[in-house]
Design brief:
Blueprint: E1 3-10, H1 16-24, E2 33-35, E3 57-63, H2 67-78, E4 86-90, E5 94-95, H3 97-102, H4 108-117, E6 129-131, E7 134-138, H5 139-148, H6 158-176, H7 180-185
Antiparallel strand pairs: 1-3, 1-4, 2-3, 5-7, 6-7
Helix pairs in contact: 2-6
Length: 191
């Protein structure tokens, strides 16, 4: 079964109590989901603002049959932490070759071979940045290159877009407190 990498957006940064609950939660014991915590004394770290988007995100590497199922699993499990909800999925252009492989019909090894053998002058795109030994590429440039050699690459992974839309709608429905009969009329089930 494939491992899917994605960033899940939360309704709020984790509080210290929620971070403790996250650490103790069996659903996250395998380490497939991690978070960035704000400093314990924010006044000492003015460069790390509480509204930093990274504090509202979970980095996920989840094994599941599809990306949509992986997102759904984490979105369900995050509700085990009181006060936390998944409200979206971030879709970045910057990817590793492993993440790029998840977005196309090629293996990571195939992309590595292409990257090593055909850089520059119309070949495989050069890396965008290398950080701590990890090389990042532009997904849009890789996708354009793969389309150019005949691969059928869609503009954006449908599962990422669908998961993001669903989580946003769920968040809006919950905020608006839509009555259960209206939800059922719309083809949705009440929680």
């Amino acid at each position: 079964m494939p491992e899917w990498s994605f960033i899940l957006r939360l309704n709020q940064p984790l509080t210290p109590e929620q971070a403790d609950a996250f650490d103790r939660c069996d659903a996250f014991a395998d380490g497939s989901v991690s978070c960035v915590l704000g400093p314990e004394s924010p006044e000492k770290y003015p460069h790390r603002r509480q509204d930093d988007p990274a504090l509202r995100e979970l980095m996920c590497d989840v094994v599941a049959p599809t990306l949509l199922e992986a997102v759904a699993r984490v979105a369900r499990d995050i509700r085990l932490i009181p006060g936390l909800r998944a409200v979206g999925v971030r879709h970045d252009d910057t990817v590793t070759l492993g993440e790029a492989a998840q977005r196309c019909a090629r293996s990571r090894q195939s992309l590595v071979r292409l990257a090593r053998g055909q850089r520059g002058s119309g070949g495989f795109p050069a890396p965008e940045v290398e950080t701590g030994g990890t090389v990042f590429y532009s997904w849009s440039k890789i996708a354009a290159y793969l389309r150019g050699i005949g691969d059928d690459i869609g503009p954006v992974d449908r599962d990422v877009v669908l998961a993001d839309h669903i989580l946003r709608v769920v968040e809006e429905v919950e905020r608006a407190q839509v009555p259960p009969p209206v939800l059922r009329s719309l083809g949705l089930t009440a929680a």
